[in-house]
Amino acid sequence: MATLKFLAAFTLVCAAALAAPVKQCSELASMTFGADVKIESAKLVAATPNLREHCEVRGVIWPEARFVIKLPTDWNDRFQMLGNGGWAGTITNVDGAVREGYAATSTDTGHDAQKEPQAIFAYRSPDNPNAARKVIDHGYLAVHETALLAKKVIRAYYGADPRYSYWVGCSTGGRQGLMEAQRYPEDFDGYVIGAPVLNISGLQMKAIWNWLAVGDGAGKIAAAKLPALAKGVYDHCDAIDGLKDGLIENPLKCDFDPARDLEYCSGNDDSPNCFTSLQIAALKKVYEGPHDSKGRQLFPGLPPGGEAFAPGARGGQPRSGWDGTLANSFNIADSFFKYMAFDPAPGPSWDFHGYNFDTDPQRMTGVSRILDATIPDLTAVKMRGAKIVHYHGWSDPSVSAKMSVNYYEAAMKTMGEKETKDFYRFFPVPGMFHCGGGPGCGNVDWLTAVVDWVEHGKAPEMLVGAHIEGGKTTRTRPICMYPAQAVYKGSGSIDDAANFTCQQK
Q1: What residues contact residue 421 under an 8 Å CB cut-off, 6+ apart?
Q2: Would you give the distance in Å from CA 312 to the centre of its chain?
Q3: What is residue 25's predicted lDDT score, i.e. its pLDDT?
Q4: Where are the alpha helices (DSSP H) in 214-348?
Q5: Which of 175, 209, 173, 214 is nearest to 334 (CA)?
Q6: Is the pTM of this model over 0.90?
Q7: Across-strand partners of 393?
Q8: Which CATH superfamily is domain 28-199+370-464 in?
Q9: Are 248 and 305 in contact (CB under 8 A)?
Q10: Inter-CA distances, 263 with 276, 319, 485, Å
Q11: What is the average pLDDT value for the chain, to the nearest integer?
């Protein structure tokens, strides 16, 4: 018994030693972490009511990848890296991870979004000599180099390596996480992959396709028509899962047809409650997705359900998932094609009306190899013992959830279904918009699910999501592992997850 007590005490002493810094924070400023790394500052930040004391290290990796590394004085011996959104160009706030005791980092991926908005950083000119490298940094390298640097700084500060390393990101951050898994599987033990823009070149092509269909010209869909569009979708598909509750549990099973399920306008009428024949045709193109002139699918279409809140569903008055998203997606795509997609880049004179869906996709091969995280073979991640939890909102109006479905199914086809689920699981979220929001129950503790899997071997079969309004939880639902979906047991409140089970239907 005495031996056991000694061992327990020894373990606690070692754990405490691991969590305590062995250097002064200021010492890190004068240390060398590689010829390409410049440490610009290292300062100890006092604790506040909302954030624990930590050492904040800032600097740049050549040529222009800026980073922050925050090291809590009372460290939980874990490392967390947070991904970016959009075109990046800013450093993601990592304070939430530091509050939980993680040593945490983020990078701007090598450019400044204020000075070079959207894809302008990729445009080669005498004033931008590092443009080619910036594309590579944005695509994958800055994240990897920052992760390696952060681990070196952690080792220097605490005298030990992190016991576990985690990636957390959504949208661009989801793509970055998959890119890490595909290119540098040794960097992380666990990944939270949210709504990944994993095929960014294809997504930008889809944005042009959609804008040509419903954002520009005779097929334009005004925001005032979105509630009628949403009503048509939900009236047709809400109850296909056996429960009319303002959610479409699996949009892939929704056979919504604008030509059949929407009201046509008569004569010259173009009121909010009806659609012209040109608008119907344009909507069909959006749901079908981009095709070439021979009818070959180039990118997945939009799953039904992200148009707006269904009248009478969660959240009261209809609110649009498309409202603003269509224009924002077009602006991102327009910048992509002007400055990044082609070599050489056409620049500001490029006109989206001239995009050729037969020949231009092949012209994007070069940038696709740098930006797109589409390799389905993750065997190296599995062999390392790392785990991936991947989620995507079914009602995401900007980044089609079909992209995630197709990637996950490709991974299972490549590695085997059982073998894939041993380390990688996908959780689509009904009614959730891009990375959150929407009528669904998209508030989920994804990181805890990954940590439990990595550190305790507890593989997630089903997670519980919450819908929160005004700071209060108004509904909970099971978030089921694909391809299962939540099925009502037949009794009890439909706002309580306990009254549902996950079943494959």
Answers
A1: 412, 459, 481
A2: 29
A3: 98
A4: 226-237, 258-261, 277-288, 325-339
A5: 209
A6: yes
A7: 429
A8: Alpha/Beta hydrolase fold, catalytic domain (3.40.50.1820)
A9: yes
A10: 9, 20, 31
A11: 92
The pair of three-digit structure tokens given for residue 333, joined into one six-digit string: 């795509």
Query: Which whole-number Å values give the CA distances from 137 to 34, 65, 455, in the listed order?
Result: 17, 8, 31
Helix H or strand E segment including 450: helix 446-456
Element (H, E) at 443: none
Exposed / middle / buried, residue 49 (Cβ in 10 Å: 0-12, 13-18, 19+): exposed
Q: What digits encode the pLDDT tens for the residues 104-118? A: 999 999 999 999 999
Reference 21, options 153, 148, 165, 167; nearest CA is: 153
Say what the pLDDT of residue 325 is.
80
When comparing pLDDT for 428 and 217, which is higher?
428
CA distances to 222, 272, 276 from 269, rounded to whole Å, are: 14, 9, 8
| Residues 258, 264, 268, 271, CA torsion sign | negative
Identify residue 407 by its one-letter amino acid code.
Y
CA distance 133 to 121: 10
- Say if residues 325 and 105 touch (Cβ distance below 8 Å): no
Closest C-alpha to 352, from 363, 367, 336, 366 = 336
> Would you kindly state where each structural domain of the chain is located, as residue ranges?
28-199+370-464, 202-363
